[in-house]
Design brief:
Layout lengths: L1 H27 L15 H8 L15 H13 L3 H17 L7 H7 L5 H8 L10 H7 L7
Length: about 150
């Protein structure tokens, strides 16, 4: 009788370990980006205008009239922006896609909400703050703490 209980306990424990491993790998796996490549039907005239741009890509206004136009705007911004700023913009858009209630997790609605805004304005819409320059997260928290006298 004791071996039957032991086998049952070992079997349940084994299933629990397998289930936990499966759930962890599914939750921590690479996420599928909702941003797609720009449409290939962008005209040569528009491409020439885009390539003549010599400035900060985050200042380019986003075209949210359609999802394809929004993706083309994202591609334009990516060509003229450094990697970290573009990644911050992508993260802000992903954040808004989830937490902007007016978008209702619909990228077309979100693109319409962001129509005419530049990358900096989109990031400001999220409300993220950059950490203080030269300070790590632990140092920033300690330096910005207020002392309360009792």
């Amino acid at each position: 009788m004791a071996t039957v209980k032991t086998n049952l306990i070992l079997r349940i424990t084994g299933y629990a370990v397998i289930l936990t491993a499966f759930l962890l790998t599914a939750a921590c796996g690479p996420s599928k980006s909702t941003l797609v490549e720009p449409p290939e039907n962008v005209g040569a005239e528009e491409a020439a205008v885009i390539d003549d741009f010599d400035g900060d890509g985050m200042e380019l206004p986003m075209d949210g009239t359609s999802l394809a136009a929004f993706e083309a705007s994202m591609a334009r911004v990516k060509r003229h922006t450094d990697e970290s700023s573009y990644k911050t913009l992508e993260n802000a858009i992903e954040y808004l896609l989830v937490y902007d209630l007016s978008a209702r997790r619909d990228k077309t609605r979100l693109a319409a909400n962001l129509n005419g805004l530049n990358g900096y304005e989109i990031i400001d819409k999220v409300g993220w703050r950059k950490p203080a320059p030269g300070k790590g997260q632990a140092e920033k928290g300690a330096a910005d703490a207020k002392i309360i006298d009792s």
